[in-house]
Amino acid sequence: MLLLLLLLLLLLLLLLLLLLLLLLLLLLTTTTYYLLLLLLLLLLTTTTTTTTTTTTTSTTTTTTTTTTTTTTTTTILLLLPTTTTTTTNNNNNFNNNNNNNEEDEERDAAADDGGGGGDDDDDDYNCGSDNDDEEEEEKEDDDDMLMMMMMMMMMVMMMMMMMM
Questions:
Q1: Where along the chain is composition biased (Low complexity) (predicted)?
Q2: What is the rounded CA–CA span in Å between residue 11 and residue 32?
Q3: How many separate domains does the chain show?
Q4: Is this structure's pTM higher than 0.70?
C-alpha cells in the first residue's frame, strides 16, 4: 500500500515537472516568471515524512509514543542561473542624436542666412541600430536558460530515482 502511494506520488511529481517545463517553454522571456519558477521548484522539491509509532505494554504501565517528523528540502535552487534584468538606455543613439542636433543647428543657421546648406533629409538619425545584436544576445540567453532548466529537471528526476 505504501509502495503504491509512493509510486502515485512520484507520478504526480513527474506530471508537475512536465507541466512546469511546458510553462517554462511558454514564458521564457520574463524575469518575474523565473522567480515564480523558483517558488514552484521549492514547493516541488520539499517532501515531508511523518512517522508515528505508539507502543503500549499492558503488563506494566509504560506507554511509549515516538513521533518522528522529517522535512527534507533539496536545494536544487542553487542550480538555477541568476537572472538579471537588463535595461537598454540607447546611449549610442542619444549621442548620435546630440551630434545630429549640432549639425541641424548649423543647417538651420545656414538656412536662416539664406545659404544653400539646408537639406532636410533626416537619414542620419538612428543609424547603427543595435537591435539585431540585442535580439541575438537575448535569444542566446534564453537558450542558455532553457539548457540550465533542462539540466535541473534531469537532476530532479535522477534524485527521485535515487530515492526509490
A1: 84-100
A2: 28
A3: 1
A4: no
Question: Closest by alpha carbon to 74, among 2, 13, 145, 6?
Answer: 13
Look at residues 30, 33, 5, 7 and name the one whose alpha carbon lies nearest to residue 20: 33
Q: Which residues pair with 66 in a beta bridge?
A: 53
Q: Does 161 map to a domain? A: yes
- Residue 163 belongs to what domain range? 139-164
Give domain status of residue 98, yes or no: no
- Total length of the chain: 164
Q: In this structure, is residue 15 part of a structural domain?
A: no
Classify residue 115: in a domain, yes or no: no
Helix (H) or strand (E) holding 156: helix 131-163
The answer to whether 100 and 124 are in contact (CB under 8 A) is: yes
- Residue reference for cell 514564458: 27
What Å distances lie between residue 54 and 98, 99, 112, CA to CA? 81, 84, 100
Given pLDDT bands bounded at 50, 70 and 90, which one contains residue 70?
very low
111-115, 131-135, 140-144: the lowest-pLDDT one: 111-115
With contact defined as beta carbons under 8 Å apart, do 68 and 50 qualify?
yes
